Here is the input.
Amino acid sequence: MTLPTFIIKNALRNKRRALLSVSSVAVSLFLLVTLQVALRELTLPVESPGAELRVCARNKVSLTNPLPARQRPIIERIPGVEGVTPFTWFGGQYQNEGAMTFAQFAMDPKETRRVFTDFKLSDAELARFQTGKTAAIIGKITADKYHFKAGDHITLNSTVYPGALEFTIAGIFSGTADDRMMLFHQDYLDDSIGTPGLVGMWWLKVKTADDMPRVIAAINQAFANTAAEVRAESERAFQLGFISMLGNIKTLIASISTVVVFTLVLVTASTMSMAVRERFRELAILKALGFRRRELFVFILAESFGLAAAGALLGIGTAYVAYTFGNISKMTHGIFVSFEVTPRIMGLAALVAAVLGVISAVAPALAVARTSVVDGLKTLD
Here is the structure.
């Protein structure tokens, strides 16, 4: 019998315990990978093509405070601005659902292609969107979820404005970082609520990347010391700022991850200690045959490391396959558009498994090292 075979036979002596140990490592590392990927997706939202040239301008006091529509001509006259559209949150619920499942924004449909260059929308669909007052376009993810198609009529009950609005779907768009939202006419919203002249925020596109800082500064300066001061920033900065409103999500996920790893260490170390304790007589015999303490430590370490590695391979591999080839939008009910298991995250999980294998072997190895051959032989199996 070779040493590798000896180690494998010891690891699989109690197959049920070995299976449970591997499963606990796999489940814990699967959860760890999931938490880390979720943290990455929340703190590093996906950027769509053209996002580097887009600027959003909101009320400086609060995102919920509206802006006057009369600001638009002033913004359009700023050098470097290529297109401007209002972007007003509607907050509608579909079919009296308990929560809003997709976002809706009112905008100027004539500026669709000019501001949102990443939209994949046919010319016919765009034409229907621009000409129909109640027309709306909706993201492919939401359309697939509710089986919407062009020509369908839907009614949304707003949680922000009184009453409900009926829309006609003019087209389905895709290719953006978030193919879930719905866009409709700002004029339709103004006429329906009876209070035109207010918008949620401004979304605009600059001509070149060099124009970005100059345009942002000009917009902020144009409305400084007015009743509706504006905070302009890049689309990326706005996304990160919006995420920060969720609270310290990093601390929360880090705390959960720490608890998962700590619990995993306790379970695995206890399992290894139990397995080694049952073999004290055998290890004492190996000592009597001339095996040194470091060699016995290597045996125990190899067994512990092997079980941790098997669990890591199963847990990390399952997470990678599920999130790479699965429909994450369907799995999360549209909360996440993508769920990328990066090499860094897989490396972190593998490192945790490696450290786990080492730590779990330390206590049993010390117990074996401190036990004499005579005391070991007295131990009952």
User: Anything to note?
Assistant: Residues 22 and 307 are 6 Å apart (CA to CA).
